[in-house]
Design a protein that fits this description.
This protein has 124 residues and is of the alpha+beta class. It has one domain. The protein is built from two helices and three strands, in the order ααβββ. The protein has a three-stranded antiparallel beta sheet with strand order 1-2-3, covered by helices on one side. α1 runs antiparallel to α2. The chain starts with 9 loop residues before the first helix and ends with a strand.
Length: 124
């Protein structure tokens, strides 16, 4: 068998074949982490807002509690929507917080919407 005298380009070709796959996996992990973090914050904000609504029965205070309890979402308040179902006698109140997460890479989508929902009986 005849051996090739130079294999200096083999590593560069292998690197060029593997790098796009590694970058895709890396961007996927980063984007998933950002979306998961936003989901946790939105759920926590809804839970805090529904607690405030059940006790104080004030829609404005509940919306403010939802916004203030998610500090990671503060810069993008325009993409945060809080929907509160007011307390009616002896029923449950519901708070839904919707947030649009802008993705960094744009490879998978431009934005993903996450929703958190909290339900509690009125009066605590």
């Amino acid at each position: 068998m005849r051996r090739f005298r130079s294999e200096s380009g083999a590593a560069a070709v292998e690197f060029a074949l593997v790098v796009p796959i590694l970058l895709l996996v890396l961007f996927g992990i980063v984007e998933f982490g950002r979306i998961y973090n936003a989901q946790l914050q939105v759920t926590s904000a809804a839970r805090e807002a529904v607690r405030v609504m059940a006790i104080q029965k004030d829609v404005g205070v509940a919306k403010a509690a939802a916004v203030l309890s998610a500090p990671g979402l503060q810069p993008a308040l325009s993409s945060t929507q809080v929907t509160v179902t007011p307390c009616v006698s002896a029923t449950e109140t519901t708070v839904t917080v919707t947030y649009s997460v802008d993705l960094l890479s744009g490879l998978f989508a431009d934005a993903v919407t996450v929703t958190g929902k909290g339900v509690m009986r009125c009066g605590g």
